[in-house]
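Task: complex structure prediction.
Instruction: return structure tokens for all chains below.
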Amino acid sequence: MRTLGYFCRYVPQELLEACGFKAIFFKPDFSSPQFSSLPVPFCALCKTFISWALNHRELSGFVVPLTCDASRRTYEILRALSVPVFPLDVPALPGEIASRWLTENLNELARELLAQSGRSFSEFTASLRQTLEETLRQREAFFREWEERRGASNRIPLLLSGSHFAYALLPLLEEKGFLVFPDLPENRFLLGEEPLLLTASPLEDLTRLLLHRLPCPWFSGSARRIALKKLCDTLGLRGVVIVFSKFCDFQLYEIGLLRRSFGLPVLCLEHDTTSSFPQWETRLDAFREMILRG
Amino acid sequence: MDDISPALLRILRFLLERRTLFRCLGAYEWWLRRKHPNPTLPQFSYQVTIHTIRNLYGRRGKIAWASLFFPSEFLHAAHLIPFYPEIATGLVAALRFVQLPLAAAEKAWFSQDLCSYHRGSIGMSLLQFFPRPDFLFATSSICHGTVGFFEVLREIWNVPLFLVDVPKRWTRDAERYVAEQLTNIARCLEREWRVRFVWDEPFFFSNRTREILFEVATLRQRKDRMLLPPTKNLDYLPYYYEFLGEETSLRFAERLKEELSKPSKILPHRLVWLHLKPFYSGELPVLLEKLGLGVVYEEFTTPFPEELSAASPLKSLARKILWASETLATSWGRIPGILKALKRYDAEGAIQFTQWGCRQSQGMVMLLREKLLEAGYPVLLLDGDHLDRRHNAPEQLRTRLEAFTEVLEGRGRF
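Output:
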């Protein structure tokens, strides 16, 4: 089956599947090789993604959003290295004008991919409707499962937010007695404030889904901070751990703003392409004590 | 000037809020005009600086902070006083004062890895040394970090932020999308703040300035017309951005053309300068001149090639925004543009002083080097910070510039 690789929460897996592709989400870890031609102060995710793409030429291609500066450069470098890459321009703002713009771009991406897969547009729209319904079902299942785990556990419930590398901390967090609610890039199920109702136009529904997804720190506005705070309140979370990439400007700005708005203990753990597990372990121990002491 | 006591900080803040104090600068301005009725370029720049300080700190109108690539013509048409914090922070660095706001930003949890232009402006805002804005305007053009930066400014100042999302590919749909956003912003200002847009005058000044700057560009193609010291033109950034659309920029362009009407000292090597430069250091231009490295073109001072049309102002400005984005921040727009400039100015190579916190330029370094070397042009990529002198390594800089000079001489171009 044709496969496409991607790394961004704004690249809709639903669309890729509806176009007849298997979508593979890139999950790096701290041993992933990096693309060495990029300078030091640059996004660790993009360095590892480019390396991964170059080593997986068997994939039909890669879908890269033109969002932050790093992802833009990733697209340009892959293109220059003759790797099949499909761009997706995503608006950085909410609103009607931005929604229309995104729908047009999703339409354009779909047509490019359908030209590769040979599927018809009507097959695509029917399939897209089904995958969107499945996403909403999986979302409900995700929250149900979380509530069940929460109810059955006496661990400290915690929000883990952050970069693509953050999932590597899950075993350590569990070892330290935390029950983790993940706001991680591969989590497609976190939505913002408004519920999503499907209409007769699947592409417009997909636009609304993308723009209602819990935003990446890159996305403009305070929606993400408000949604995270609401999530913490609704789910009764007692602390926040942010695992951020050293050269991700949006996470860096967010940390400066978030510390004031959560009203909960916040622990920030920085990484580049390597980890600092011993240091993180010590800091998590101290963080746990801080939460337990109230 | 980096360590200031809290008492002195309070006094400074107090004085900066006293509008009347700054409005009294009017008398000083008048005296300067009488003393220098036909000022040279440095004298003119000084007069403009005093006038700008009077306008901003005297609050002689509503103040609009804008990101570097938000078109100032829009702000002038709305009768707002533009203030470009990134440019102002460069001036703060040139006055050797920037470590204080950088420290203030870091104390407020804004990482050292963020761009120092943004961090410095955040610090100046936290210290309340910059004039309080009434509005904020930004685009995601060139550098998307600007969006995060202006979001922080909105939180600090609690004023409206008008953001234009700029697509990364310039298409007709992209023009329509950007123009729609500008229209929305204009309508919001008209409706909520009773702003009236008058396009003719700003567009006239902008277009006329542009024409003269093209004449200046033609002059700089001559071997005996160099702007000295090298990179001096980057000190004039306010005229290319903040004052564009005002008579000030037109007067500047006329003076610049006059300065180039006389033959200058000839430096043996002609180079193109990419991105910006360290503003805290007067040593770099001196060193460049000493090594015979002349700068004949800077990409950040290239005027928009099209005339702005008052008949369709927002469409014109949308095209200007997209042009800047493509020309400076995409590999398919920027690199061919640099190659054309190298040829047009008969330059031997290029220098880029890559800003530590600038992801978009850091990410393009590989492609830039490859394409320029392929075309036969040596390129020197210097690393450091444009504002934060903690990242300054003068001896390393000297060594690399000397080595680059040897490369140029070895190519036997002169």
